[in-house]
Design a protein that fits this description.
alpha+beta, two-stranded antiparallel sheet, membrane, transmembrane, DUF7319 domain-containing protein, transmembrane helix
């Protein structure tokens, strides 16, 4: 008779350990066992690389030494943020001084048409630029309020002056708008004279070829054809010079009329919200409404 108690004991399964990690048999790793934050760091580095690449492209595409309203209109929001880092902008009285110098230089070169003044608002200094077609008020924070073509011309000037890397030129001593009678009829007269000389040579050459073809029997049509071409080119150049002179004269007269309008005005235009050198509540209320919106 067999001893069943011994066989049952030997065939019984071994007891499992309650803790799988106790015997080191569980080699599986959790998906969170990797380095924490590695994907986020890679994403941040990628974003910084993209911003640097965009900034380099913007700096190569736009000429910030001659930055104007048309360039500002072409820039997208991403390009603007890449080119102008808000954390490095100049503000306060230093910004006003830089804007003042930049505007004086541009008024002297006729890039900006307007009268430049220093006014006050809430006890703080502001820069006012106005003309017969609009105005702009610059605050120490870099905020610009206004309307018309003056506002359009001033906004890129303030943006450039707020950049630490931009060197503001030294304005000339006589930077203000000129007297209407001192404005010349036109510019580029030397260029017009050169074009006139070329036109005269073309006309003489064409006339000589035509006369030679008529007097002498050259037996070819090339000479009279070339003479006609030279003659037409000369007449075209003369017409171009005449048109350029008329355009210069028209622009000069228009510029003189605007200067006379500003000079003859006893006070600032009615749309400029400044009285006795102080910004009125009208402009302040408009600014507050813009901030709320």
């Amino acid at each position: 008779m067999e001893d069943t108690s011994t066989r049952s004991e030997s065939e019984s399964p071994p007891e499992e350990s309650p803790d799988p990690a106790a015997d080191g048999s569980d080699d599986r790793t959790s998906p969170d066992d990797g380095e924490p934050g590695a994907p986020d760091a890679d994403g941040t580095r990628a974003d910084e690389t993209d911003i640097e690449a965009l900034r380099e492209r913007v700096e190569s595409e736009y000429d910030f030494d001659d930055f104007g309203p048309s360039d500002m209109a072409q820039m997208s929001a991403e390009e603007w943020d890449a080119a102008f880092d808000p954390d490095t902008w100049i503000t306060g009285d230093r910004l006003l001084d830089r804007v003042d110098a930049e505007l004086k230089s541009r008024i002297a070169t006729r890039d900006v048409f307007g009268v430049l003044e220093r006014v006050r608002e809430d006890g703080e200094e502001r820069i006012l630029v106005y003309s017969d077609e609009g105005y702009a008020i610059i605050r120490p924070t870099g905020e610009v309020r206004g309307e018309g073509t003056v506002l359009r011309d001033i906004e890129p000037v303030v943006a450039l002056a707020a950049m630490e890397s931009y060197e503001v030129p030294e304005p000339p001593e006589d930077w203000s708008l000129p007297h209407p009678d001192s404005v010349p009829e036109g510019s580029g007269e030397f260029g017009n004279l050169v074009v006139q000389a070329v036109a005269a040579v073309q006309v003489l050459a064409g006339a000589a070829l035509l006369v030679a073809s008529a007097v002498a029997d050259l037996g070819t049509i090339v000479a009279p054809a070339m003479g006609a071409v030279f003659l037409l080119i000369g007449l075209f150049l003369f017409a171009m010079v005449a048109n350029a002179r008329l355009s210069d004269r028209f622009r000069s007269e228009e510029y003189r009329d605007r200067l006379r309008a500003l000079r003859e005005a006893k006070e600032r235009p009615g749309f400029v919200p400044v009285e006795d050198g102080v910004v009125t509540d009208e402009d302040a209320d408009a600014t507050e409404r813009d901030r709320e919106n």
